[in-house]
Every structure is written in structure tokens, then in C-alpha cells.
Amino acid sequence: MGRGVDVIVWINGTFGAGKTSTARELTGILPDSTLYDPELIGDTLRRLLPHKRLAEVSDYQDLPSWRRLVVDTAAAMLAEVGGVLVVPMTLLRQEYRDEIFGGLAARRIPVRHVLLAPAETILRERIATREEPGAPELVDVRVRQWAYDHIPVYQQALGGWLTADAHVVDNGRLTVRETAERIAEAVRTDTAGVCDIVQTPEPTRETVAAGVLLFDEEDRVLLVDPTYKPGWEFPGGIVEPGEAPARAGVREVAEELGVALERPPRLLVVDWEPPAPPAYGGLRMLFDGGRLSQRAAAGLRLPGPELRAWRFVTEEEAGALLPPQRYERLRGALRAREAGRPAYLEAGRPTP
Questions:
Q1: 311 shares a domain with 190
Q2: Percentage of the chain with pLDDT > 70?
Q3: Is residue 199 part of a domain?
Q4: CATH number, domain with residue 333
Q5: pTM for this one?
Q6: How far apart are the first and last CA of the chain?
Q7: In degrees, to the nearest 5, what angle opens at C-alpha 312 toward C-alphas 290 and 331?
Q8: What 3-state DSSP class applies to 5?
Q9: Of the residues 82, 192, 258, 260, which has the maximum number of CB atoms within 10 A of its CB?
């Protein structure tokens, strides 16, 4: 890690893994480092939000405001103090990790992702004997049970996405100091897990985006799963200044999937997406990229930093994958394709 580079060292792991104590120790080892605990944001939201809203979620991580504030506060702290932010915070839901790390990437803030992964027997032992910092009494039994209940969720994530870009440290038999020293060495030598989620800078005004619908020989539509935001999406992206939307769609399909379209895509839908702070909204266009042969479909590739997966789905299956407004946009595009003429939508719906 070069001097003068602002960076986040995100220490992940389930409850009882030793994240907070390790983070405190790490800030004493890494120069120009500051501890940033997003749990404080959760505590603040518990005080600020109405009880009715809090009752709708089981975890403050389910609050979009928490995820947004985690990113905004990290950016503000780095602007204030610079250097290294050491962040001890459990992230077991992939879509939340993607949203937060993607938001940081949009601000050009690199993340070193570290996972503390002691054996389950050690985790359970630590939960059973855990005490609140500065208090001799044991943690409330409800809190302890809540920690136990998250172990299966952690194990499921551990067997799937969680270790993909993380530097894994088995700290079951290590002291807090030894664990922090291992992380510090990995950060110094750039061997800590580099989360290479790619995201364009956050817009400062309304944008124009172009998506391309590609179909297989069964007329199912291709959807992709971005790494940097929750929910499935259409191949495509933001139209660059001076670029024609159809050309932007062609470019994005080639960059994302390695597909070179043989003909210019045909316009299906222009959809005005209203602003929903902090997003600015703008025009969203969908084009018909035609059918892919079995050979072309078999040759689809994914650039790891941008897309996690792709699949061909029916219209009904797409409803379970796409966010509601995006699904309405797809439905409008499919109806326009059937009718043979483009449609104008607002928030995914035809205008009267």
C-alpha cells in the first residue's frame, strides 16, 4: 500500500469473530489509521427513526438509510483525516456488501476486505463467554441468542460468496495482537483482499442509460447480476457524453459480455425514471439486440469486477429477479417488441 493513499480495511466476520478488538489493535499498528465503527450509525438511527419504521426491520442493516450513511460517513471521514479507515462490521448479505462496497468504489475509495474466520466451536465458545466492554456482567441472553442464530447464515455465506475477494485469517488460536499484525502485514504488502467491484462515479444530475435486451432461441431474455448494486439488471450502462444511446448499448454489451452485435439494436422503450433521492433518475432506454444462437450464448463471458452471473429467463421469472420499476420497464419493452413499435413510459408505466 503506497503512502498517501486513502483506503478502507474492512474487517468482516460473524458475531464473536473478534472484529472490534482486532480493529482497535490494528489502528495502533497501521500509521495514519482511524477506527470507524458503522454500528454507531445503527445506534443513531434507532434514536432518530420512528418506532413504526424500526419495527418493520429485524436488523438496522436492512435500512437503506444505514447503508447509504455508512458510505457517506466513510467518505466524509477520509476527506477529514485521510489515511486508513479500519472498519469492523459484519456483512453477511451479499447484496448489502455489493451496495456498500459499490458505493465506496463510486467514490474511488479502495477497500481491503479481511475476513476473520475462526472455527465454529471457537465462535460458540466466544459467544457463550462474551462480556460487554467495560462491564463485568454477561451479554444479555437475547443478544447472545441473536449471535447464535446468525451462525448458520454466516456458514452459508462462507461456503458461497464471502471468501471470493477477502483475505481470510483464521484467528481461532491467535491473540488479538497476532491477528492485527497479520492483517497489517497483508495490507502493507498489498496481499489483503482487494475488492475490485467496479462502479462509475456517482452522477451529479439526471443521466441517460441504454440497456440491450438479448434473447435466446426460446425467446427468453438475458439478465445480468451486477456486483456493485442489488438486483438483477439488463446488459447496458450509462451513455457517455457525446455518445449515441444505441452505440452505448452496443459498447456495453461488448464490454460486459463479449457479444458483438451484428446489427444496430432497435429501440423498444424510452422510460423516464423519476428522481428518488439520493438518485437523480433520468431517461432509461431499452433496445432489442435480437436473438443469440446457442453457440453465441455458450460464448458469453463475464468480467469479474462488474458482473457476477447471467441467465436467460422468462417474463414471469424476471419478476422475481428485477426490482419492481425495472420489471415494469421490461414488460413495456416486451409489449413494444410484440407490437413492432417503440413505447414511451414514465416510471415503468405507459402514459395515459
A1: no
A2: 89
A3: no
A4: 3.90.79.10
A5: 0.67
A6: 57
A7: 70
A8: coil
A9: 192
